[in-house]
Structure formats: structure tokens, C-alpha cells
Amino acid sequence: MRRTQKKVKELPEVIPELQAIDDEALVLDKKYEVEYSALLAKYHSLRKPILKERAALLAEAPANATNAEKNLGTPGLKGFWLQALINNPHTDMTIYEHDEEVLDYLRDINVDFLDKKESHKGFKLTFKFKQNPYFTNKELVKEYWLNQPVAWRNHLEIQETKSTEIDWKDGKNVTMNKRKSKSKPGTTKEEPQESFFRLFFSNLKKGAPMPNSEVDDYNDEADSEYILDHDYTLGVTIKDKIIPRAIHWFTGAASSYRDDSEYSDFDYSDYSDNEEDKKVEQ
Q1: Are 260 and 229 a contacting pair, CB within 8 Å?
Q2: How far is 198 from 195, CA to CA, in rounded Å?
Q3: Element at 249 (helix H, strand E)
Q4: 23-32, 41-50, 75-84, 138-147: which range is least confident on average?
Q5: Model-level pTM greater than 0.70?
Q6: Cα dihedral sign for 167, 236, 40, 53?
Q7: Distance (Å, whole) CA 97 – CA 240
Q8: Which class is domain 25-270?
Q9: Which of 6, 31, 250, 272 gives 20 to 30 Å between its CA and that of 185?
Q10: 96 neighbors 196 (Cβ within 8 angstroms)
């Protein structure tokens, strides 16, 4: 049986001394955080030229490549990033069939800290695209803003995400679906549909109303925090697992040796109003 937590009402005389000792240890913890951030920034910089080599190799089209293949995001290995994302169980559940042709134009994903001196403030993911038939953006950026609500707890919480607004070309917006109009036979109308580009590149804020309420059922504060937490988990997965080990996700080697306990059973398709809009199981 779980015991009821108690708070001390009358503080014994020794309490201030104990708190002073705790505060002294907290100062040491803060110094550790500063040095840890510097170490992260150092090795992040050292990793960049290595990842640039990977991007250059993927951009190099083989001699027998067609013009269409040369125009894709990774002509050196067609569909590299799409396959890496699909082979990870967390990112796979956010990608729908109508997203796949768009992601074929993805040439690289980069990560950077929002503040190099204080890495705990958050990070950003930059999705770099080749010129494509779907949108005009060369880059789509997703920022994750964090804070440490309690100084003596080494725990970070996601507060907000900020995303690039996608400039879709006419008739190419995969977050919208054309349906036959029931009220006006012979005509079609556009309705929102689930998409990686709707789910991932959205702006979320703790305690704020959820966007895209026209297609989803998560409007209250509890759902807002739930989705925000899972969005953060998705970002961390891309940052810490997929970007540094993308080739292992592409080949499937990483998914063969994964720990299922690392991945949530959260299903974004649960928030789709229409069964036909839900992701087809692969």
C-alpha cells in the first residue's frame, strides 16, 4: 500500500544547515551542467564534418542514374532518409503513404543546439530538401524548447515546439485530401488529412490549445501535454538515434537489435476522425 506523503510543518533547527549543504551541492551540479554542455558542443562540432561526408556521398548519383533519380534527395542511395525513418518504429507511425514521395526529396537532416553554451535549453532539427514538386522551402526546421522546472531535479520538460510554415505548391499539399462532395455531386472539396508534415511540423505549446483541431480530437490541456511529450520523444529519437546511425536504420540492422521497451505504444492514427485516413499497416 502506498503511504501518504507528509510535509514537515514545524522545521527542526537542523533543517537550515541541511538546506545549506544541499545548496552547496546544487552549485556543484550547476558547474557540472556548464561543463557537460561545453563537452556536448565540442563533440557535436567534431561530428559535423563526418556527417557532411555522408551527405556528400548520398548526393553523388551513380553513372547509370536516370535524370529523375538524379533529382531525388539522395541519388547516391535512393530513398535513404525515408527508409531510415520508416525502419524506426517511432517515426514510422507518423509517416503515411502520401508522405513517401515527398520524403524521397529529403537530402539530409541536421541537429543543432538552440544555445551552444546551455544545451539543456533545447535543440532544432533541420530537414533539407532538394527542389521538388511539392513545396518551395529548401529547409523545414523544427525547434524544441525545454526548461528545468525544479533546480534540484535533473529533469527537463518540453515547453514549446516551433516549426517552419510549409509553402505548398498548388494542388500538392499532402496534408489535404480531395474528396467527392456529397452536397454537390460532380464536384470535389479539400479536407484535412493526417500526414507527417501536419503532425511533425506543427507549433505546440504547453497549456495552449492544440492546432489542427479540424481533424483531430485532442483539444483539452491533458491531451495537449500528452501530444507535446510524444512530439518531444519523436524529436529526441531523430536527434539521438536516426541522425547519427542513419545507415543502420536504413539497412534495418538497428531495428533488428532494438529494445521494444524504448518505444511507446502511442498511435497517432488514434486521433484521425476517418478510418480511411489512418495509416495503412506495412
Answers
A1: no
A2: 5
A3: helix 246-251
A4: 23-32
A5: yes
A6: negative
A7: 25
A8: alpha beta
A9: 272
A10: yes
Contacting residues for 125 by C-beta, under 8 A, at least 6 apart: 109, 110, 111, 141, 142, 144, 235, 238, 239
Residue written as cell 521538388?
A: 132
Task: Name the average pLDDT for the chain.
Answer: 84
Q: Copy the grid coordinates of residue 161.
A: 515546439
- Whether 126 shows a pLDDT value over 50: the answer reads yes
pLDDT digits (tens, 9 = 90+) for 192-221: 999 999 999 999 998 877 765 444 555 555
Residue 226: per-residue pLDDT: 84
Q: Are 123 and 155 in contact (CB under 8 A)?
A: no
Residue environment code for 115-129, b if the CB has 16+ CB neighbours within 10 A, otherwise e: eeeebbbbbbbebbb
Q: CA-based angle 58:39:263, to the nearest 5?
A: 60
Give per-residue pLDDT as tens, 48-99. 999 999 999 999 999 999 999 999 999 999 999 999 999 999 999 999 999 9
Nearest of 98, 268, 80 to residue 172 by alpha carbon: 98
Contact 243, 110 (CB under 8 A): yes
